[in-house]
Amino acid sequence: MLNFVFKNPTEIIFGKGTIAQIDARIPRDVPILLTYGGGSIKGNGVYQQVASALEGREVVEFGGIEPNPKVEVCLKAVELARSRQVRFLLAVGGGSVIDATKFIAAAACYEGPDPWDILRTGGRDVKTAIPLGTVLTLPATGSESNGNAVISRRATSEKLPFHADCLFPVFSVLDPETTYTLPAEQVRNGIVDAFIHVMEQYMTYPCDAPLQDRLAESILATLIEVGPRTLAEPQDYASRASFMWSATLALNTLIGCGVPQDWSTHMIGHELTALYGPAHAETLAVVLPGVWAHQLAKKEAKLRQYGQRVWGVATAEAAIGKTEEFFQSLGMPTRLSAYEIDADQAAEAVGRRFTERPVKFGEHGDIDGDAAAAILRLRA
What we know:
The protein is an alpha/beta fold. It has helices at residues 46-53, 71-83, 95-107, 117-120, 184-202, 210-232, 237-250, 264-276, 280-294, 296-311, 316-329, 343-356, 369-377, and strands at 11-14, 32-35, 59-62, 88-93, 132-136, 148-153, 158-163, 171-174. The longest helix is centred in the middle third of the chain and has 23 residues, at 210-232.
C-alpha cells in the first residue's frame, strides 16, 4: 500500500426530509447564489423545500445549467455572482449542476485573464473559492463529496477535468426521496457512472491493499444488487438509498487512498462526449471493456480477483464479459455503433487530441494517443 493523506471536509446529511437542515448550515447575513438545471426541482417539490430552508436570506437564482455544463453558461453565473457580491453557493441538482457550481466558485475568485485556464491547468492554480453546499438530486458523479469537476467548452468541443481542495462542498444533503421522479435513463447512467468510478481506482494491479480492495468490491457488489431493483422500483427507499450512498462512496477519495489509479476510461470518454454528444456514462460503458482488453496482460491479476470475488468466475476474460453483460442488463449499450459513431473516425480524432496535448493516462502512464485509438477500434 502506498503512502497517502486522506482529507474530506464535506459534511454528509443523509436521509428523508433532511433538506430543512441546510437552514443551520448556511450563513444568514450573506448573499447566496442558488444554482440548478432545467427546472425539474420545481416540479418534484425540492425547490419548495430549499426555498423554505433559505427563507429570510438574500438569494439570487441561476438556472438552466445543462448536462455536461458549458463554460460559456457558467461565466454568466460568475458575472452574476460578482455583481451581487455572492458569498455562498448552493447547488441543487446532479453532478453537472454541482460541477458547474464548483467552477463558478473558483472562477469568481480567479484573477487570471481567462477562466478557462482553470481547466487547462487542471485546477493547479485554484487556491481560493466561494464556499458551496449541495442538495443532491441525481446520484452518479460523487461530486457532492470531492473537489473534482468537469467542464466543457462549446466553442472548441473540449471537455476537461479539474480539481482543487478548496472546492469540496461544505455540506451535501442526500435525501433519496428527491430521486424518485428521475427518468430511468438517468438512473441507469448514474449506476454505471458510480460503478466505473470504483473501477478506475480498483482495476489496476495488486499492491498489498486488501482493505481498499474489499471496500471497492463491496460498492461494486452493492450496485450490482440494488441497481436493477431501483430501476424496476423507483420508489423503493431502501434500494434508492443504497444506490445514492454507493455513488457518493465511489468517489469521495476514500477507496483511492494508497492505491494506484487508472482514469484512462474517463479521459477517453470525455473526448467522445465532447466530439459526438453521448452522455458521460454512456461513453464510459463503451470504453471500459476496451481498456481492459487492451491492457489485459497488465490488469489480469486484478481482473481475475474481481471476477472471482464479485461474479464467481475464474478468468479475466469472463470478468470482462460479466461486466459488459451487467451494463447491458441495465439497458446500457456498450458499443460505439449504438450511437452511430464510426470507430475508426473516433479513434483518429481522440488519438490526435491525446497526442496534441500531449497526455498519457493509466496506472502505468502508457495510455497515449496511439493506445486510445487502439482501444476505440476495439469498440466498434
